[in-house]
Write a structure and sequence with these properties.
The complex is a heterohexamer of chains A (943), B (104), C (515), D (125), E (120) and F (164). In chain A, 71% of the residues lie in helices and 3% in strands. Chain A is mainly alpha-helical and 943 residues long. In chain A, strand 1 and strand 2 form a beta hairpin. A two-stranded antiparallel sheet of chain C has the order 1-2. In chain C, helix 6 runs antiparallel to helix 11 and helix 7 packs antiparallel against helix 9. With 125 residues, chain D is an all-alpha fold. In chain D, helix 1 packs antiparallel against helix 2 and helix 2 runs antiparallel to helix 3. Chain D starts with a helix and ends in a 31-residue tail after the last helix. Classes of the chains: A mainly alpha (943), B mainly alpha (104), C mainly alpha (515), D mainly alpha (125), E mainly alpha (120), F mainly alpha (164). The interface between B and D is large, with 58 and 61 residues. The complex binds sodium ion (2 copies). Chain D: One of its GO terms (molecular function) is sodium:proton antiporter activity. Chain D: InterPro entries: PhaG_MnhG_YufB (IPR005133). Chain D: It comes from Luteimonas granuli. Chain D: Pfam families: PhaG_MnhG_YufB.
Chain lengths: 943, 104, 515, 125, 120, 164
C-alpha cells in the first residue's frame, strides 16, 4: 500500500510528461488525482497508525551499500504525509485557477507532482539513505519549480540559490548519514533509532551531528543560510504556498524530529540547535517587519517560525517536541492559506507590493476576511491555532533547566518573537486590507473565482477549528505524531485554549501589546515604506559564488591555458621526477658492487658515437633552419642504423634506414607547406629553463640506460625463444620469427597502426587545399638523366623487395622491410616523374591494399582457428615438387604478405596524398613565389 | 665446402690482413668524420647534401670492413639498402632544393 | 577451444578492414552502415558473453600462437577486463548510432577508423603483455587521431596537433619504460614481471622502481591525472560529438592500466615494491580533483565543462583506486562505468545544444536553441547533470555513496571533503550552465538587415536515441545496481588477490606444443 | 698463391681506404662546392669499390660468404654516384652558386641573368 | 661500449626534449624524431650490447644466447620504429593542416580557447 | 614480334633480373632458377608501365673495351684528383664547359654522364633542354677543345654504337 501511495504522484507525473496537447483542465484533474487517491490510501492506513502500528514495506535496492527501498508509516510520517498530500491537493486546485491561460500547465503539474512524490518519499522512507535520495529529489524538483518562470532573472537566481544551498546541505547530510551507517552498521531507520545511545557515545558523534545539522539547517532556511528562502519567492505562488509552508522547508525540521531519538539529548545538540533556532527566529521575525512584498513578509515569517520549531526541537524536552510538531502543523495551515491569499491578491491586483495596496477589505471582502484570520493565527492571537503552539513554546522556554543563561536567552527570544510576529502580521493586515487604496493599481479589482478561494477557506477553517477546540480536532493526530518521535516517552499534556492565568499567558498578552506598540511606533518614527533593505545574504552569496567562479577561471586559465608547451613540459618534468626519485631516495644507502663485464668498444664505435652526438647536437643547433636540420638529422639516422648493424641487429638497421628515408621525404613534403624557419626565441630565461630541463632529461635517461645495461641480463625467455625458433617456428631469423610468430599479435597491431596512419593522412588531406609556403616559378621540372636511371633501377628494386620479403624468415628482411623497399622505387618515380604520371600509369588503390593486407594477416591468423588452435598458431608444410625440389610453405609467410601489403599501401598512400595536394584558392595571397635570383645558397630559401 | 685459406701473414705478432682491416676502418672512419664536418659546416645546402651522400658511401665501406673484421656476411643487405637509399635521398633533397616541391 | 577472449579484438579488426572495401560512393551509405552495425553488434555480443564467462571466476587465458605466456603473447581476461570491454562496446554502440545521424558520411573512413578504435580499446583491456598493451594503446590512439581529425578543419587541427604531440611524447616515454622493463625483468608478460618483481635484488631496487614509476607516469598521462591533464580539455571539446563521447573511455584505459600494473607489480606480493608510487597518486588525485572542479566552474563552453567533468570523474577514480581496498575499488569500478556513460551522454547533449543554437555554439551564454531542441536537450541535460553530479537517485549518487562508505576511517578526513566539495562545486557549475543555456532568455538584439540568419540544427532521431540509450544505461545502473555492484565487487576482490590470477595464468598450457 | 691473394687484398684495402680518405679530405679542404663535388664522387666511389672487392675476396677465402654479392653494390654505386653528382650540381646551379658559360647557339638576350639550368627554354620539358 | 651508447641516448634525449619544448610544430616533430631514435637505442640496449652475433641461426651453431644476441628487443624496436614512423607521418600532415587552417605553425595556433568555431 | 613485345617487353631487362636474382640469393638450383625466370617474366610487364624506352642495345661489341678504358680512366682520374686535393688549391683552375652531344639515345646520354663524372676531373652538371649539350664542370681545365675531343673519342663514340 505504501508503495502505491508513493508511486501515485510519480506515475501521474510521468503520465503528464508523456501527454501532449492535453487541455489544462484535464491536466489539473490528473494532477489532483494523485494527492486525492494517495490521501485515500492514507486514510485506509490511518486506523492502523492510530493504533500504534507501523505499516512497513521493504524492497531491496542495493544491499551491498545498505540502500533499501524500505518505507514505514509511523505517526510522524503519517502527520507529514497528511500535510504533504492534503495541502498538495489544495494547491493543485488553487494552481489551476492561479496559472494564466498561457502557462505551461503540463510542466507545472508534472514538476509539482514530482516534488510531492519526493516529499512523500522522504517522510515515508524507512532507510536513511533512501531519505537522502528523496531529500535531494526535493531539492531538484523544487529547483525546477522555483525556476518555473525561467525567463525571469529573479526566478533563475532564486532557483539556483535554493538548489546550491540545499544540495550542499544534502551532500553534508549524505556524509552524516554514511557516518551514522558506519556507527550503527545499518541505515534502516528502526536500527538507527534504536541505536541512539551508541551514536551519542561514539567519537564520531560531533561529526555526525554537524553534517546532519548542516543538511537540516540549509533545508529549513536557518540562520545564516536562511536567505535563499525569500529569493525562492520568485516561484509561482502555488509553489510558495506548497514548498514554503508545508513541505520543502519542513523537510529539515522533519528530519530533525525524525532523528531526534538518535541525536538529541546531548549538550552539544541542545546548544547548537537551540541557539541557531533562536537566532533564526529573531532574524526572520525582525526582517519580516521591513518587507514590502507580501510574499516577502510571509517568507521571513516562515524563517522565523522555522527557527521556532528548530529551537523547540533543540530544547529536546518531550513537551518541546510535542510543541514543535504542533507548530509544524499550525504553521503549515496558516502559512499556506496566507500564501494563497497573497497569490489571489497578486492575481487580482497585479501586484504584491504592500506599498501599492490597501483597502482591499472593501473590494475583496471574503478573501480579506480569510487572510486576516490567517494573519491573526500567524500573530498568535487566541482562539486561533498559532496561539496554542506559541503558548506551549513560552512554557517550554520558561522551563529550561540547568542552563540558566539559555533560559534567559530563549525566554527573551520568545517574547521578541511574539512581539515581532504581531508587528509584521499587523503591518501585513493593515497595509493590505485597510487604509486607502489600492494605490497605483490600474486593474479592476474583484473577488477571484470561487474555487480559488476554497482552498484558503478550508485552511482557515482548520486554523479556527484547531484554535477553538484543539483536543477534539488535532489531539489524536498530534499524539500519534508525537509518539512517532518520542515513542514511550510521550509526556502528559493537555491541549486546551485556557490553562488559567500563568506566565505564558501574560507573555502572550505582553507580546501582543508590545507588537502593536512596536508597529505603531515604527510607523510613527520611521517611514516604513521608504526603507529598502538589501538582502545581505543574497549579496554575500552572490559575491561568494562570483568569487568562486572567478577563482575557477583564474586558476584554470593560469594552469590549463591550452599551451602545448606546458603540457609537454609537465610530462617531461614528471617523468624526470619519477625516474630520479628512487635513486634520490636510495642515495646514501650502501650499494652492492655490480658484477658486470663491460663490452669493449667496437672498432667503428668511436666514429658512430661522434656521428650520432654531433648530428644530434647539430640538429639542435640548426633547428631554426629547418631544411638544414632535416639534413643533419639524416646523419643521426645513419648513425643509429649503423649502430644497429654493428651491434648485431641487421633487421633493425634496414628498417631504420628505410623509415629514415621516408621520414625525410615526408618532412620535405611537409616543409613545402610550412614556414622555412622558426623565429628566434627572445626570452633567454625560457631557453635556459628548457635547456636545463632537457639536460636533466638527457642525463636521466642516459643514467637509467647505463644502470640497466650494466645489470646482468635476465633473458631466460629470450633464450627459450632462440632455441625454439627453428624447430617449432621454422625460421632462422629469430627476429622475424618473433615478429610473425611469437609476437605476431604485436605485428598485427603494428600494421593496423600503420594502416590507420595512412587512412588518417588520407582523411586529412583528401579534400584539403593548401597554399605552398613559396613556389618556384615555372612548370614542373623534368630530369631526364636521373629519370632514365630511376627507370632502370625500378625493376631491380622490385627484385630486391621480393628478395627481402621471401628471405625474411631466415635472413634479415621480411614483410615490413620489403614493403618499404617496394615503396622506394615508386617514391623515386613520384619525385622524378610527378604524381600524376605515376598514378595514371599504375593506378594502385592504396586504400584497398591496406584493407587487403589487414585481411590477409587476419585470415592467416584465423586459419589456425579452423584447426582448433589459437589465433596466429603457425603452420608449416614442405611442398615437394618434381623438378624444383622442396618448397617450404609457412603460414608465417602469408602473414608477412599481409604486412607487406599494408606497409606498401600505407606508405604510398601517405606519399601520394602529400605529393598531390592542390593549391589553395583563397589563401594564395599569403604565400609567394621565390625569386630564383635571391635564393640563398646557405639555406636554399629566399634570403 | 672446402675453401682456400689465407696465408695468415704476421706482422709484429698481428695478422697482416687483420691489421690492415683495422687501419682501413680507422681511415674510413676519419673520412666519415670529415664528411660529418662538412655536413655540419655547410656552408651551402648542396654542400650538406654532398656531405650526406658521402657519409652514406663511406658508411658502406665501413660496414663492409666491419663485415670482414667480424667475418660475417650479414651486413650485405644493410650495405645494399644504404647504397639504394643514399641515392634516393640525394635525389629527394636535390629536388627539394631545385623546386621546393619534391612531388610535382 | 574457446576463442571468445580474442573475438572482441578480431571482430572490429575484420569490420574495419572490410569497411575499407565498401567505402566507395557507388556502394552507398546503407551498406557501409550495415557492415559497421553487423560488426558492432557482434562485438557487443562477444563482450557480453565474455563478461558472463569472466564472471564465473577463473581467469580466461588465451595463448596467441599457442606459445606459453612467458615467450608469446597471452590475452588474459578477468572480471575487470571483461567489464571494461563490455563498457566499451556499449558506449561504442551508442556512439555509432549517433554518428549514423550524418557524421559518418562527412568524415572519410569513419567506419573503418571507428572499428579499429574499438579494436585498440578492447585489445588494451584484454592483453596480458605489457608491450602488446603499448601496441594496442597506439592502435587506439592513432585511430583516435583519425576520428578526431577526419572531416575536421580549423581550430580542430591545432587542438589535434596538441593531442597528437602530447600522446606521441607520452608514447615515447612508454617505450623508454618498456625498454627498461625488458632490461630489468627480462620479460614482457605482466604476470611474469609480477613474479620477478618480488625477487629483485636490493641493488637493482631503485632501477626497478624508476622503471615502474615511468610506466605509471605514462598511464597517468593517458588517464589525465594531475598535472598531466592539460591536453585533455581541448582535444575532447574539439572532437566531433560521437568521437568525443567515445574518447571518454580513453582516459579509462589509462586508469585500467594503472590498476592492472598496480595490482600485479605493486600488489601485496611485490616484496619491496609493494605499494610503491601509490602514496603519490592520492595527493595528485586530490589536487587534480580540485583543479578539475575549478575547471568545471571556469568553463565558458558546455563541451569544455563536460571535458572537465570527465576529469573530475577520472580523478575521483584515482582516489577510489588509490585507497586500494576492495570496497573503494568496487565502488570505483561502478563509478567508472557510470561516469563513462553519463559523460559520453553529456558530450552528445552538448553537441545537440551546439548544433541547435547555430552560430552561438555551446558557449554558456543565452541563445535560443531551436524549438524542440531546448526541451529534449534540456531534459536530457537534467538527467545527465543529476547523474554526473552525484545527486540521487541516479547512478552517480550510488557510486559516490558506495565510495564514501568504503573509504577507510583514516582517510575520511581528506577524502570526504574532497569528494563532497567537488560534488558541490560541480553542481554549482552545472546549474549555472544549465540555467544559462536552457533557461536564460535571449536578449533582444537589433535585427540585422541582411545578416545571415543563424542556421539552427534540428533534432535528429538517431542522435536523440543514442543519447537516451547512454542515459538509460546510467539509469538502469541506478535502478538495478545489484548485479553491477556484485560484479564490480568480485572484480575488485579478484584484483586484490593477484596471486590467484598469476597462478591461473601460469597454469595455462599450450594445446599443441610442449609447454 | 694465398700470400699473393692476401697481399692483393691488403693492397686493395689500403688503396680503397686511401681514396675514401681523399674524398673526405677533398670534401673538407676544397674551397667551393663544384670543386668539392669532384672529390667524393670519384674518390669515394673507387675507394668503396676497392674495399668491396677486397671484401668479396676476403669472404671467399674465409668462407663466411663465398658469393660475390658485394659486386652488386659496386655496380650500383658506380651507376648512381654520377647521377647523384649530376643532381647535386643541378641543385647548386639552381641556387646560382656559380657562373657558367652561355649555351652555344643561344642569343645574348639574357646575358646578365645566367641561364636556367636547362637553358631557360621551357619547351624541352 | 655501454657508456658510449648511454651517452648517445642522453644526447639524443637532450636535443629531442629541447626541441619538443619549442613552439613551432615542425620543431616539435624534429624533437620527437630525435626522441624516437633515443628510445629505439634504449630498447635495443635492453638486450645488452653484443657485437657480431646477429640473431640469425646458422647451421652448426647452437641456437643459444651464447652465439646470438637477444632477439626480443630487436623485435620490439622494429615495432617501435614502425609505430613512431606512423605517428610522425600523422604529425607532419597535421602540422601542415594546422598551418594552412590557422595561418600559423605555432603549436597553439588558432586561439585555442575561444576559437572562431564558436564566435561564428 | 608483337607477341614478344607483349609478353617479353625487354629481353635485356629480363636477363638482368635473372642474373640479379641469382646473384642476390647466392644459390643455384632449380627452384631459384624457376623463381628468377618467373620474376624475369613478370616484373618487366609491370615495370614497362613507366612507359619509357627500355634498353635496346645496338651492338655490344665496343662494350669490353669501353669498360676497360673506363676502369683505367677511373683509376687515373682518382689519382689525379687525389693529387689535386693534396696540392695547393690555387693551382686548380676549375670551370664549366658545354659539351656538345652527338648521341641522342637517353640511355647513351645517361651512360655518358656517368662516364664523364667518373673520369678525369669532370662532373656533369646539367643537360640542356634540347638534349644537345651537357654542362660539364672541370676541376682543372687546361684545354677545352682537347677535353671535348677526348671525351668524344673515348666514351661517346663507343656508346653511340651500343645505344644507337
Ligand atoms: Na625480418
Ligand atoms: Na606536390
Amino acid at each position: 500500500m505504501l508503495e502505491l501511495m508513493l508511486a501515485l504522484p510519480f506515475v501521474l507525473a510521468l503520465v503528464l510528461a508523456i501527454l501532449r496537447d492535453a487541455p489544462a483542465k484535464a491536466v489539473a484533474w490528473l494532477a489532483g488525482l494523485a494527492p486525492v487517491l494517495a490521501l485515500a490510501v492514507l486514510a485506509w492506513l490511518t486506523p492502523a497508525v492510530m493504533d500504534g502500528q507501523i505499516p512497513r514495506t521493504m524492497h531491496e535496492w542495493l544491499p551491498q551499500a545498505g540502500l533499501a527501498f524500505s518505507l514505514r508509516l509511523d505517526g510522524l510520517g503519517w502527520m507529514f504525509s497528511l500535510m504533504v498530500l492534503g495541502i498538495g491537493a489544495l494547491v493543485v486546485l488553487y494552481a489551476y485557477y492561479y496559472l494564466g491561460p498561457r502557462e505551461k500547465y503540463r510542466r507545472f503539474f508534472c514538476f509539482l507532482l514530482l516534488f510531492m512524490g519526493s516529499m512523500l518519499g522522504m517522510v515515508l522512507s524507512g532507510n536513511l539513505l533512501l531519505t537522502v535520495v528523496f531529500w535531494e529529489l526535493t531539492s531538484i524538483s523544487s529547483f525546477l519549480l522555483i525556476g518555473f518562470w525561467f525567463h525571469r532573472d529573479d526566478a533563475r537566481e532564486g532557483a539556483r540559490m535554493a538548489l546550491t544551498i540545499t544540495a550542499a546541505g544534502g551532500l553534508a547530510l549524505l556524509g552524516g548519514v554514511v557516518l551514522i551507517g558506519r556507527v550503527v552498521g545499518s541505515y534502516e531507520l528502526d536500527a538507527v533509532l534504536a541505536a541512539g545511545e551508541t551514536i551519542r557515545a561514539h567519537e564520531l558523534y560531533p561529526w555526525i551531528l554537524g553534517l546532519v545539522l548542516a543538511g537540516v539547517f540549509t533545508k529549513s532556511a536557518q540562520f545564516p543560510v536562511h536567505f535563499w528562502l525569500p529569493h525562492a519567492m520568485a516561484a509561482p505562488t502555488p509553489v510558495s504556498a506548497y514548498l514554503h509552508s508545508a513541505t520543502m522547508v519542513k523537510a529539515g525540521v522533519f528530519l530533525l524530529a525524525r532523528l531526534h531519538p538518535s541525536l538529541a539529548g546531548t549538550d552539544l545538540f541542545f546548544y547548537v540547535v537551540s541557539t541557531v533556532g533562536a537566532l533564526t527566529l529573531l532574524v526572520g521575525a525582525w526582517n519580516a517587519i521591513f518587507q514590502h512584498d507580501m510574499k516577502g513578509v510571509l517568507a521571513y515569517s516562515t524563517i522565523s517560525h522555522l527557527g521556532l520549531i528548530t529551537l523547540l526541537l533543540g530544547l529536546s524536552t518531550p513537551m518541546a517536541v510535542v510543541a514543535a510538531l504542533f507548530h509544524i502543523l499550525n504553521h503549515a495551515t496558516f502559512k499556506a492559506s496566507l500564501f494563497m491569499a497573497a497569490g489571489i491578491i497578486d492575481h487580482e491586483t497585479g501586484t504584491r507590493d504592500m506599498r501599492r495596496l490597501g483597502g482591499l477589505r472593501r473590494l475583496m471582502p471574503y478573501t480579506s476576511a480569510l487572510a486576516i484570520i490567517a494573519s491573526l493565527a500567524m500573530a498568535g492571537i487566541p482562539l486561533l491555532n498559532g496561539f496554542l503552539s506559541k503558548e506551549m513554546f513560552f512554557a517550554q522556554a520558561l522551563e529550561i533547566e540547568g542552563h540558566e543563561e539559555m533560559r534567559w536567552f530563549v525566554t527573551i527570544a520568545a517574547f521578541l518573537f511574539a512581539t515581532f510576529g504581531v508587528a509584521y502580521s499587523l503591518r501585513f493586515v493593515h497595509d493590505t486590507f485597510f487604509g486607502r487604496g489600492p494605490r497605483a493599481v490600474d486593474q479592476d479589482v474583484h473577488e477571484p473565482p470561487r474555487f480559488m478561494q476554497v482552498p484558503v477557506a478550508i485552511l482557515v477553517v482548520a486554523c479556527v477549528a484547531v484554535g477553538i477546540a484543539p483536543q477534539w480536532t488535532i489531539g489524536p493526530f498530534l499524539e500519534t505524531a508525537a509518539r512517532g518521535v518520542l515513542g514511550d516517552a510521550l509526556p502528559e499534556y493537555s491541549l486546551a485554549v485556557w490553562h488559567g492565568v500563568n506566565t505564558p499567558l501574560l507573555m502572550s498578552f505582553g507580546g501582543v501589546l508590545c507588537g502593536v506598540l512596536l508597529y505603531l511606533g515604527l510607523k510613527r518614527v520611521l517611514d516604513l515604506h521608504a526603507i529598502v533593505r538589501q538582502s545581505q545574504g543574497r549579496m554575500l552569496f552572490h559575491l561568494n559564488i562570483e568569487a568562486l567562479f572567478r577563482l575557477g577561471r583564474r586558476f584554470t586559465h593560469a594552469v590549463a591555458n591550452g599551451s602545448m608547451q606546458r603540457s609537454l613540459l609537465w610530462l617531461v618534468l614528471v617523468a624526470i621526477a619519477a625516474g630520479a626519485a628512487p635513486f634520490v631516495a636510495a642515495w646514501g644507502e650502501p650499494r652492492e658492487p655490480v658484477a658486470f663485464v663491460s663490452q669493449p668498444m667496437v672498432r667503428l664505435a668511436w666514429v658512430l658515437w661522434w656521428l650520432l652526438v654531433t648530428c644530434a647536437l647539430g640538429t639542435l643547433a640548426l633547428y631554426r633552419y629547418r631544411l638544414l636540420a632535416v639534413l643533419v638529422m639524416g646523419g643521426c639516422g645513419l648513425a643509429v642504423s649503423m649502430t644497429f648493424v654493428a651491434l648485431s641487429a641487421p633487421d633493425l638497421a634496414l628498417t631504420q634506414l628505410l623509415v629514415e628515408l621516408v621520414t625525410v621525404s615526408l618532412m620535405l613534403l611537409g616543409l613545402h607547406y610550412l614556414p622555412k624557419d622558426s623565429p628566434r626565441l627572445r626570452s633567454l630565461p625560457r631557453r635556459l629553463r628548457d635547456c636545463a630541463v632537457a639536460l636533466a632529461a638527457g642525463a636521466g635517461t642516459a643514467g637509467l640506460a647505463w644502470a640497466m645495461m650494466t645489470r646482468p641480463p635476465a633473458n631466460a625467455a629470450a633464450a627459450e625463444i632462440t632455441a625454439r625458433s627453428l624447430p617449432e617456428a621454422w625460421g632462422s631469423n629469430v627476429v622475424n620469427v618473433i615478429l610473425v610468430d611469437f609476437r605476431g599479435f604485436d605485428t598485427l597491431g603494428e600494421i593496423t597502426v600503420f594502416g590507420i596512419a595512412g587512412l588518417a593522412v588520407h582523411a586529412m588531406l583528401r579534400r584539403a587545399r593548401m597554399a605552398p609556403e613559396k613556389v618556384m616559378p615555372g612548370p614542373p621540372i623534368k630530369l631526364p638523366v636521373p629519370a632514365d636511371l630511376a627507370q632502370m633501377m625500378f625493376p631491380l628494386t622490385l627484385v630486391v623487395s621480393i628478395f627481402l620479403f621471401l628471405r625474411g624468415h631466415n635472413s634479415p628482411g621480411g614483410g615490413f622491410i620489403a614493403g618499404l623497399t617496394l615503396a622506394v622505387p615508386l617514391l623515386i618515380q613520384y619525385v622524378i616523374q610527378g604524381a600524376a604520371s605515376v598514378e595514371t600509369r599504375f593506378g594502385f588503390d592504396y586504400i584497398r591494399a591496406i584493407g587487403a593486407g589487414l585481411l590477409i594477416a587476419l585470415g592467416t591468423g584465423a586459419a589456425a582457428m579452423l584447426f582448433d588452435r589459437p589465433f596466429l598458431a603457425s603452420g608449416h608444410y614442405d611442398l615437394v615438387l618434381p623438378v624444383l625440389g622442396t618448397i617450404p610453405l609457412a603460414s608465417a609467410a602469408a602473414f608477412d604478405l599481409g604486412v607487406y601489403l599494408v606497409v606498401f599501401g600505407s606508405t604510398m598512400l601517405i606519399l601520394s596524398m602529400m605529393g598531390t595536394l592542390k593549391p589553395s584558392k583563397t589563401m594564395i595571397a599569403h604565400r609567394g613565389t621565390i625569386d630564383p635570383a635571391t635564393r640563398s645558397a646557405l639555406t636554399g630559401e629566399a634570403s | 665446402m672446402n675453401t682456400p685459406e689465407l696465408a695468415g701473414i704476421q706482422i709484429f705478432g698481428f695478422g697482416l690482413i687483420e691489421t690492415t682491416i683495422g687501419i682501413a676502418m680507422y681511415v674510413v672512419g676519419i673520412a666519415m668524420l670529415l664528411a660529418l664536418w662538412r655536413l655540419l659546416r655547410g656552408p651551402t645546402v648542396p654542400d650538406r647534401i654532398l656531405a650526406l651522400d658521402t657519409l652514406n658511401v663511406t658508411a658502406i665501406a665501413e660496414l663492409m670492413l666491419l663485415g670482414m673484421h667480424l667475418q660475417s656476411a650479414i651486413y650485405f643487405e644493410a650495405a645494399l639498402i644504404i647504397a639504394m637509399l643514399g641515392f634516393v635521398s640525394t635525389v629527394v633533397l636535390s629536388k627539394y632544393v631545385i623546386r621546393r616541391d619534391i612531388v610535382e | 577451444m574457446s576463442h571468445l577472449p580474442i573475438l572482441p579484438i578480431l571482430i572490429p579488426l575484420l569490420g574495419g578492414a572490410l569497411s575499407l572495401f565498401v567505402e566507395h560512393r557507388r556502394i552507398g551509405t546503407v551498406v557501409q552502415r550495415s557492415v559497421a552495425w553487423v560488426f558492432m553488434l557482434a562485438t557487443l555480443a562477444a563482450s557480453i558473453l565474455l563478461a558472463l564467462r569472466a564472471h564465473e571466476g577463473p581467469v580466461l587465458v588465451y595463448l596467441l600462437g599457442d606459445w606459453p605466456a612467458r615467450i608469446g603473447i597471452a590475452l588474459m581476461v578477468d572480471r575487470l577486463s571483461a567489464l571494461m570491454v563490455l563498457t566499451t562496446s556499449l558506449l561504442a554502440g551508442a556512439c555509432l548510432l549517433h554518428a549514423c545521424s550524418g557524421w559518418d558520411r562527412r568524415a572519410p573512413h569513419f567506419h573503418a577508423l571507428f572499428q579499429l578504435q574499438l579494436m585498440g580499446l578492447n585489445g588494451a583491456f584484454l592483453t596480458g603483455d605489457i608491450f602488446n598493451l603499448f601496441v594496442f594503446f597506439e592502435v587506439m590512439l592513432i585511430a583516435s587521431y583519425g576520428l578526431l581529425l577526419s572531416g575536421g578543419r580549423g581550430v580542430r587541427m591545432s587542438a589535434g596537433l596538441h593531442y597528437v604531440a602530447f600522446n606521441v611524447a607520452a608514447s615515447t616515454l612508454f617505450l623508454i619504460a618498456l625498454g627498461m622493463v625488458y632490461g630489468v625483468f627480462g620479460t614482457l608478460n605482466m604476470v611474469e614481471i609480477a613474479t620477478r618483481v618480488a625477487g629483485i635484488p636490493a641493488g637493482s631496487l631503485p632501477l626497478a622502481k624508476a622503471t615502474i614509476g615511468l610506466l605509471l607516469v605514462v598511464f597517468c598521462a593517458k588517464a589525465a591525472l594531475m598535472p598531466l591533464y592539460l591536453w585533455l580539455p581541448e582535444a575532447y571539446t574539439r572532437a566531433p560529438a560521437a568521437v568525443a563521447a567515445l574518447f571518454v573511455i580513453m582516459t579509462k584505459v589509462g586508469i585500467y592500466s594503472v590498476l592492472r600494473v598496480g595490482s600485479l607489480m605493486l600488489g601485496e606480493d611485490a616484496g619491496p615494491l609493494a605499494g610503491y608510487g601509490w602514496d603519490w597518486m592520492l595527493p595528485a588525485a586530490v589536487a587534480g580533483l580540485a583543479l578539475a572542479t575549478l575547471g568545471v566552474l571556469a568553463a565558458s563552453r558546455l563541451r569544455v565543462l563536460v571535458a572537465y567533468v570527465v576529469l573530475v570523474s577520472a580523478t575521483t577514480l584515482f582516489i577510489a583506486f588509490g585507497l586500494r581496498s576492495a570496497g573503494t575499488i568496487a565502488a570505483g569500478l561502478y563509478y567508472l562505468v557510470h561516469s563513462t556513460f553519463v559523460a559520453a551522454a553529456l558530450f552528445l547533449i552538448a553537441d545537440l545544444v551546439r548544433r541547435g543554437r547555430g552560430d552561438a555554439g555551446d558557449v554558456l551564454r543565452a541563445f535560443p536553441p531551436a524549438p524542440g531542441v531546448r526541451v529534449v536537450a534540456g531534459a536530457m541535460f537534467l538527467v545527465g547533470a543529476v547523474s554526473v553530479a552525484g545527486l540521487p537517485p541516479l547512478s552517480g549518487f550510488i557510486g559516490k555513496t558506495m565510495l564514501l562508505q568504503a573509504i577507510p576511517e583514516a582517510d575520511i578526513r581528506w577524502a570526504w571533503p574532497a569528494l563532497l566539495g567537488s560534488s558541490m562545486l560541480v553542481i554549482v557549475g552545472l546549474t549555472r550552465a544549465g540555467t544559462r543555456i536552457f533557461w536564460k532568455p535571449v536578449p533582444v538584439l537589433p535585427a540585422l538587415p541582411d545578416g545571415p540568419r543563424p542556421v539552427r540544427g534540428q533534432l535528429r532521431l538517431p542522435e536523440t536515441i543514442a543519447t537516451m540509450v547512454l542515459l538509460a544505461l546510467g539509469v538502469a545502473m541506478s535502478v538495478a545496481p545489484g548485479p553491477v555492484t556484485a560484479y564490480t565487487r568480485a572484480a575488485a576482490e579478484q584484483l586484490l588477490a593477484p596471486s590467484t590470477y598469476i597462478d591461473q595464468v601460469r597454469a595455462a598450457m599450450p594445446q599443441g606444443r610442449r609447454p | 698463391m694465398s700470400v699473393v691473394w692476401e697481399l692483393l687484398l691488403v693492397a686493395l684495402l689500403l688503396v680503397g681506404s686511401f681514396f675514401v680518405l681523399m674524398g673526405g679530405i677533398g670534401l673538407v679542404k676544397l674551397s667551393e662546392f663544384f670543386k668539392r663535388l669532384h672529390a667524393p664522387t670519384k674518390a669515394s666511389t673507387l675507394g668503396v669499390g676497392c674495399v668491396l672487392t677486397a671484401s668479396v675476396g676476403y669472404h671467399l677465402f674465409v668462407g663466411s660468404d663465398p658469393q660475390p654479392r658485394e659486386l652488386l653494390i659496386v655496380a650500383f654505386l658506380l651507376i648512381t654516384a654520377p647521377i647523384s653528382a649530376h643532381l647535386m650540381s643541378k641543385a647548386a646551379l639552381s641556387l646560382r652558386m656559380d657562373e657558367w658559360p652561355q649555351l652555344p647557339g643561344k642569343s645574348d638576350e639574357d646575358t646578365h641573368v645566367p641561364p636556367r639550368p636547362d637553358g631557360g627554354d621551357d619547351e624541352g620539358y | 661500449m655501454e657508456m658510449a651508447i648511454a651517452s648517445g641516448i642522453g644526447v639524443l634525449v637532450f636535443a629531442g626534449v629541447y626541441l619538443v619544448l619549442r613552439a613551432r610544430s615542425f620543431d616539435v616533430i624534429l624533437g620527437l624524431t630525435l626522441l624516437s631514435y633515443a628510445t629505439n637505442l634504449l630498447i635495443f640496449s635492453s638486450g645488452r650490447l653484443v657485437v657480431g652475433k646477429p640473431p640469425v641461426l646458422q647451421e652448426g651453431m647452437e641456437a643459444t644466447l651464447a652465439n646470438h644476441t637477444d632477439p626480443v628487443p630487436q623485435a620490439l624496436v622494429l615495432t617501435a620504429i614502425v609505430i613512431s614512423f606512423a605517428m610522425t607521418a600523422v604529425a607532419i600532415v597535421l602540422a601542415m593542416r594546422s598551418r594552412a587552417d590557422n595561418d600559423s605553425d605555432h603549436v597553439d595556433a588558432g586561439d585555442v580557447r575561444d576559437g572562431r568555431e564558436d564566435r561564428g | 614480334m608483337r607477341w614478344r613485345r607483349r609478353f617479353l617487353p625487354s629481353l635485356p631487362l629480363t636477363l638482368a633480373i635473372i642474373v640479379f636474382w641469382l646473384l642476390m640469393v647466392s644459390e643455384l638450383n632449380a627452384a631459384q632458377l624457376a623463381m628468377a625466370a618467373l620474376l624475369g617474366l613478370v616484373i618487366p610487364l609491370y615495370a614497362t608501365r613507366i612507359d619509357r624506352e627500355f634498353a635496346r642495345f645496338g651492338s655490344l661489341r665496343p662494350l669490353p673495351k669501353l669498360l676497360v678504358v673506363l676502369l683505367w680512366d677511373i683509376l687515373m682520374s682518382n689519382v689525379r684528383v687525389a693529387r689535386q686535393v693534396l696540392s695547393r688549391e690555387e693551382r686548380i683552375h676549375s670551370s664549366f664547359i658545354w659539351y656538345p652531344l652527338e648521341i641522342g639515345n637517353i640511355h647513351g646520354i645517361t651512360a655518358l654522364a656517368c662516364c664523364i663524372t667518373l673520369t678525369p676531373g669532370t662532373v656533369t652538371a646539367a643537360l640542356s633542354d634540347d638534349r644537345r649539350y651537357l654542362l660539364v664542370h672541370v676541376l682543372d681545365l687546361a684545354d677545352e677543345a682537347a677535353l671535348v675531343a677526348d671525351i668524344k673519342r673515348r666514351y661517346e663514340c663507343p656508346l653511340m654504337e651500343i645505344f644507337p
